[in-house]
Amino acid sequence: MSMPEQHEWLPYVIVWACACALVVLFRIRRGLLHQDNAVPRIEIGNGQTIGAREEQDDYFSTFVSPHGTIAVLADGISGLSGGRAASTAAVTTFVKQFLKLEHIRELPEFFTTAAAASNAEIMHTLKGAQGGTTLVAVVVEDGNLHWGAVGDSLIKIFRNGDFIDVNQKHILESVLEERFVSGEITRDEALDSPMKNHLVNYLGYEGFKNIEIGTEPVRLQKRDKVILCSDGVYNTLTEVELEDILSKPISAYDAAQEIIEAIERKQLTHQDNATVVILEKGW
After folding, report:
1. For an engineered disulfide with 241, which of 171, 237, 277, 278 has Cβ 3.0 to 4.6 Å away?
2. Which residues belong to any copy of the PPM-type phosphatase domain (predicted)?
3. Third-level CATH fold of 40-281
4. Whole-number Å distance between alpha carbons of 165 and 58
């Protein structure tokens, strides 16, 4: 082909190349939109108050990764000098361990590994000082809720106006109830024990037991709200009060803020630190 003929065809070649590029970009965009619609979106909200305490012993963190959305909340034991350091070390270590995941198949082992690493990190940080913390952690991936818990902080699912309890409180009351059911003690002995609210399992001591882990992931439904909260929340607000807030057509962040505002309005003399994290499943 001679040089003049090449110049005559050049505009057609450019137009053809541009058209092909547009087709490719359109297909990529359509694929991304399809992918976004297929993966449930997670909206995150949180709130916290120091209450009547001199120090904030609660600590929390959320993080979004290719393996899912993680939320971790820890309530440092206020009666111990290292409560704040323990909760901070536990949450930080949990998130670091989560970021090490190479595949979602590793999730079942993640909670056990992260709990052991957190316990070791707390003991290293405190260097012999008294300290400990509760901890609840959830990972939401592809609409499935995976969870682990130590102590008396709680994980709940708010679904269609009702609460679904996810974990149990690791306090002496639970042990006493089991002893009553087995006939070892009377109902009055179980109910009247002054030690019933004492923790029987927490992070930050050599006798740490295994973290409680969900045996199977919970399949979330559209508009489910996953609630993580310290005892400063559920000891102050009733489920009815929480339900009134969570039923409102507001964002997860606004709901968390309203929960904290409701706690502060009560102005309880001995109000504990209170922290709430909300993960809401959308589409």
Report:
1. 237
2. 43-281
3. Phosphatase 2c; domain 1 (3.60.40)
4. 21
